[in-house]
Design a protein that fits this description.
- With about 210 residues, the chain is mainly beta.
- The protein is built from two helices and twelve strands; from the N terminus they run E-E-E-E-E-H-E-E-E-H-E-E-E-E.
- It has one domain: 4-Layer Sandwich (L-amino peptidase D-ALA esterase/amidase).
- Helix content is about 10%, strand content about 30%.
- Helix 1 crosses helix 2.
- The radius of gyration is 17 Å and the shape is globular.
- The C terminus is likely disordered.
């Protein structure tokens, strides 16, 4: 079985944009031709947009984009920017008067990291979608939706560590399979000694909030 980067799967493109000073961002996964999509929403406080339409009993056959975003529920605004860009380039469901892009979104809570006053919005989603359409270089870790991901918040905020987002593609002939997710949790890393005020890789950028 071959392991590769998820953005190497044909038919998909990935874009991201982040505000490193604010500690937030969003990631867009595009499938302009449309991809059959399913969802399993869990957790005590999920933040999603348009995922109900993925229920098999609905008539939403394909999805044109998935948005992963920081900003908690505020970040869902980023999906509007993705829809705007896709409509401009003619990607979406033809309803005769225009095309309606099928865009689903899910959020990460990063308001306590960086600046809670700046959240992903329509403008950020638009730029991330442009990046995906242009197939600009894509980075793993604390970029895009993973910018403000962090772990180890149970003791106190001053000792949390970076999380981030990662993707993986596995290929054993055809079809290919892949997944992308963001690491965001209250628990810490087992066996890791907490260092007050430590936020690896963030202090040098001046955005480790204590």
């Amino acid at each position: 079985m071959e392991r590769m980067m998820i953005h190497e799967i044909p038919g998909f493109s990935f874009g991201q944009v982040q505000d490193l000073a604010a500690g937030t961002g969003c990631t867009v996964i595009l499938c302009p031709e449309g991809g059959v999509t399913g969802v399993d929403v869990r957790g005590g406080s999920p933040g999603t947009r348009d995922t109900d339409a993925l229920n098999p009993v609905c008539n939403r056959e394909v999805v044109h984009a998935v948005v992963l975003t920081g900003g908690s529920a505020f970040g869902l605004d980023a999906a509007g920017g993705v829809m705007k860009k896709l409509e401009e380039v003619g990607v979406g469901r033809d309803v005769m008067v225009t095309v309606v892009p099928n865009v689903c979104a899910a959020v990460l809570f990063d308001l306590k990291f960086g600046s809670m006053e700046i959240r992903p919005d329509g403008a950020m989603g638009y730029v991330a979608c442009e990046a995906a359409l242009r197939e600009l270089p894509f980075q793993e870790g604390n970029f895009g939706a993973g910018t403000g991901c962090n772990i180890g918040k149970i003791p106190r905020r001053a000792v949390f560590h970076e999380g981030g987002h990662r993707g993986l593609r596995l290929s054993a002939g055809r079809p290919d399979g892949g997944g992308r997710g963001g690491l965001q949790r209250h628990g810490g890393r087992v066996g890791e000694r907490h260092h007050p005020g430590r936020c690896p890789g963030r202090q040098r950028q001046g955005i480790c909030r204590q």
